[in-house]
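Subject line: Sequence and fold of a protein, written as structure tokens
Area: Proteins and the way their chains fold up in space.
Start of record: The labelled sequence and token lines come straight after this line.
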Amino acid sequence: MDEMMVLAVGHDAMRTALFVAMPMLVAGMLVGVIVSILQVATSIQDVTITFIPKILAVFLVFVVAMSWMLRVLLSFTREIFELASTLVG
């Protein structure tokens, strides 16, 4: 296993992690922006108001996208095991 292969596996791992986490991060960001706009419009400046909608949005996206995330992670895991089996045997 040379340096380029290690870098490629590391790159694929980082890309897969970002790809899987992105829907939840985007949902949290969008809900945070919407709640902040509503807080500015209504002059309610309570810090704790943003937490519950963000948590609910991230959890909802997680539940909805769980099967897709598992497929992506299983595909990456299979690729890693196939690569390891070709290197060993």
Remarks:
- The helical segments are 3-42, 51-88.
- The chain has a mean pLDDT of 93.
